[in-house]
Amino acid sequence: MFKRGETTNVIQKARIRKTRYFYDDSAGFMFDLMQDIKKGIRLANKLGLEPVFRLNGTSDLSWEKYEMTEDMNVFDVFAGIQFYDYTKLPNPWERVRPNYHLTYSYSERTGSWATVSSIIAHGVNVAIVFDRLKGEALPTTYRGIPVLDGDIHDLRFRDPMGHIVGLRFKGGRAKLAAGLAGGFVLPAAH
């Protein structure tokens, strides 16, 4: 989110800096990522919490393709730790690992309803933003597929398989119309 008149902010600048670091010095980036994950695990253990990591907050990288150490990706190095992400990349079931859960993010640009059906049939849930605002009910099913309320928590790896993860539109009615027009938001009544 930008303040009025801004085209960037400290958060965006930090994301750009990290992205450049990832591509300019991938070995250094992966070393730092490993150290950050280790710190997160220690903190979670100290607090009596389960350590869980979502690597793609604003990106959609295929982390399984990047080596953290020789011949090992982050999921191999931290085999006992749960990771999860949302993705718009095709065939997400091919990227799932025992400790890496993916939820596919639907939009008009990412595929047809046949794509959604195929992804769910392959054991990956699909997140869909519906034309509902905070406090409004989500559909219980959509095109015959059960819908769970994805706004209750973000721990997608705990969701039962074979579901649509229903999300409410974050914004007001005026922006909702633009989301519907752009295919990012689907009408809940179908």
List the defining traits of the structure above.
5 helices, two-stranded antiparallel ribbon, single chain, 2 domains, eight-stranded mixed sheet, 190 residues, alpha/beta
Descriptive overview:
- This protein is of the alpha/beta class and 190 residues long.
- It folds into two domains: 1-83, no CATH class; 106-190, no CATH class.
- The chain has five helices and ten strands.
- The chain has helices at 10-24, 26-47, 74-77, 113-121, 173-181, and strands at residues 52-53, 67-69, 72-73, 82-87, 100-105, 126-130, 141-142, 145-149, 164-168, 185-186.
- The strands form two sheets. Strands 1, 4, 5, 6, 7, 8, 9 and 10 form an eight-stranded mixed β-sheet that branches.
- Strand 7 (141-142) and strand 8 (145-149) form a beta hairpin.
- Helix 1 crosses helix 2 (26-47).
- The longest helix is centred in the N-terminal third of the chain and has 22 residues, at 26-47.
- It is globular.
- The two termini are 32 Å apart.
- 16% of the residues are buried.
Judged by helices, strands and strand pairing, the structural class is: alpha/beta
What's the number of domains? 2
Helix content: 25-40%
Using only C-alpha atoms, the radius of gyration works out to: 18 Å
In one word, what is the shape? globular
Main sheet properties: 8 strands, mixed
Number of helices: 5
> Which range does the strand content fall in?
15-25%
Low-confidence spans: none
Task: Name the helix and strand elements from N-terminus to C-terminus, one letter apiece.
Answer: HHEEEHEEHEEEEHE
Seen as an oligomer or otherwise, the chain set is single chain
End-to-end separation in angstroms reads 32 Å
